[in-house]
Amino acid sequence: NSFRFLPSMDLQLTVDVRGPMTFAQGRMAEMWGIDLGYRYDFLKGKASITLNLTDIFNTRRFYVDSRGDNFTGTVLRKRETRVATIQFTYRFGKQQQGQQPTRRRPIDGGSDDMDI
Questions:
Q1: Is the whole model's pTM more than 0.90, yes or no?
Q2: With CB atoms counted within 10 Å of each terminal CB, which end of the chain scores lower, N or C?
Q3: What are residue 10's DSSP bridge partners?
Q4: Pairing between strand 83-90 and 62-67?
Q5: At 8, is the pLDDT very low, low, confident or very high (cuts 50, 70, 90)?
Q6: In 21-104, where does DSSP find H-type helix?
Q7: 100 phi and psi, to 5 degrees?
């Protein structure tokens, strides 16, 4: 959800939840997290500063408990999910109404897998 406080200030709150899952040989625990973003526009809308904080409560983790007649297994994976970023954006020129900006693809293919 995005909230506009003033014409030049936006706050965005994102909550994602995946409930627990039970399967034939075990259980996967719930996973959830909250992200927060703030943007301030200035220089008559030509520039902005954005601050983002992901997983503000540091709760995103992957946990599976599996059991069977001949095995017991537990997996707990916790990646570095609490990350803060700051971004400065300056808009050059004027975009035509209805025209979409073109984006270049990164050289590495832009893969951003979660590896969970």
A1: no
A2: N
A3: 4, 39
A4: unpaired
A5: confident
A6: none
A7: -90, 135
As a whole number of angstroms, the distance between CA 75 and CA 71 comes to 13
Answer for the pair 27, 10: CB distance below 8 angstroms, yes or no: no
CA angle 88, 91, 97 (to 5 degrees): 140
CA separation for the pair 99, 95 (Å, rounded)? 7
Reported as a single tens digit per residue, the pLDDT across 19-78 is: 999 988 899 999 999 999 999 999 988 899 999 999 999 999 989 999 988 999 999 998
Separation CA 9–CA 5 (nearest Å):
6
Q: Which two three-digit tokens encode residue 6?
A: 């003033």
CA dihedral sign of residues 93, 95, 85, 76: negative
Which class for 59: exposed (0-12), middle (13-18), buried (19 or more C-beta within 10 A)?
middle
